[in-house]
Amino acid sequence: MDYPKQQRLKIWAHASVQFAEEAPQLTEQLQEDAYPAKIERIFTFGIQGFD
Description:
Shape: flat
Radius of gyration: 15 Å
Number of domains: 1
Order of helices and strands: EHE
Strand content: 35-45%
Number of strands: 2
Distance between the termini: 13 Å
Number of helices: 1
């Protein structure tokens, strides 16, 4: 929500969830060296539409 302009973005999407061990290449791309948390799950959103 952009409160100063009183606008919002509405997104319609389908989500899929993968465990990090199931997608090691994607997990490696998403991992930040400066952020020590371990990635456990990856949420992927397929955008169907927006307004």
